[in-house]
Amino acid sequence: MKSLYPEVTVTTDFEQIIEDKDVHAIFIAVPLDHHFELSRKSLLAKKHTFIEKPMASSVIECLELIRLAEKQKLTLMVGHTFLYSAPVRKIKKIVTSGVLGELFYISSQRLNLGLFQKRYNVMWDLAPHDLSIILYIMDEAAVAVNCQGKAHVTPGIEDITNMSLEFSKGGFATVQNSWLDPNKVRRMTFVGSKRMLLYDDNEPLEKIRIYDKRVEVPPHYDTFAEFHYSYHYGNTYCPYINQIEPLKVQCQHFLDCIEKGAKPDSGGPEGLQVVKILEAASESLKNGGSKVTVR
After folding, report:
1. From 198's CA, which of 11, 26, 101, 123 has a CA 20 to 30 Å away?
2. Helices 268-286 and 59-72 meet at what angle, rounded to 10?
């Protein structure tokens, strides 16, 4: 880093950063099991703190960080990067506008070959992205989760997981994550009563496709013979999206929140909601996929 940016001061001593009065904000981008320890030190030193996803390794740790940030009147933000991407923002507008009709369910796949972690499983590694997007789009709390998975490479560390989520207003979502897939897949499907939407983050240009497809149930009928489902097939539409680097938007949002004292779009409460689901899913995983209430 010093060779790339000679004017920047670098150090391998975290305490030096904590004690530097010219440092007002700290980004915590370290392995998950160090998130809480370093973020807590940062907040206690009265530094605005940005934590990479997931926020921490337990609900209790998240609550403590939120309490500290509120007590110190500091900005606490979590790196749910996709909330700052133009396609996800566009999907939020489309769903909210009612173009898709009633949102029946969301299906998400985030798969690739590696990168294997030794301290935590694929769900804790990849699912925070999917969960943060789903919670942002649906705007309702998850109330129950089922999760199954399998460890093929490292004993006790699942490299493939499948999660099902139930939401407070009746919403439903599935999340599939894998480190053992031949292709990199970053795909989400939003199925509504009027239309369907496919979001493929691997597509360079047409990341969103809206399909005018649906199943129509007859409003009334007198006999079983009169009952027929009808299938509507319409056009496919790709809305224009002005692509902006999400990491840049995210970092600028953090600085803006510090300067204005505003609430981040992915603050402590949003980070907590994701960890709540991950913690409940971990319990379900240990119990063979049984349903667990998200506390």
Report:
1. 123
2. 170
The domain that contains 205 carries what CATH number? 3.30.360.10
Name the token pair of 88. Answer: 């996800």
Which tokens in the block code for residue 136?
A: 């942002």
Is residue 6 assigned to a domain? no
Identify whether the C-beta of residue 111 lies closer than 8 Å to the C-beta of residue 177: yes
Q: Quick one: angle between helices 35-44 and 59-72, nearest 10?
A: 10
The one-letter code for the residue type at 115 is L
Does any domain span residue 73?
A: no
Instruction: Give the C-alpha separation, 264 to 220, whole Å.
Output: 48
Is-contact 65 76, C-beta < 8 A?
yes
Residue 61 lies inside a defined structural domain of this protein: no
- Domains in the chain, number: 1
pLDDT by residue, tens only, the chain of 295 residues: 899 999 999 999 999 999 999 999 999 999 999 999 999 999 999 999 999 999 999 999 999 999 999 999 999 999 999 999 999 999 999 999 999 999 999 999 999 998 999 899 999 999 999 999 999 999 999 999 999 999 999 999 999 999 999 999 999 999 999 999 999 999 999 999 999 999 999 999 999 999 998 887 767 666 665 566 777 888 899 999 998 999 999 999 999 999 999 999 999 999 999 999 999 999 999 999 999 999 8
Burial class (CB in 10 A: 0-12, 13-18, 19+), 223: exposed
Range of the domain at 107: 82-247+276-293
Residue 94 lies in a domain: yes
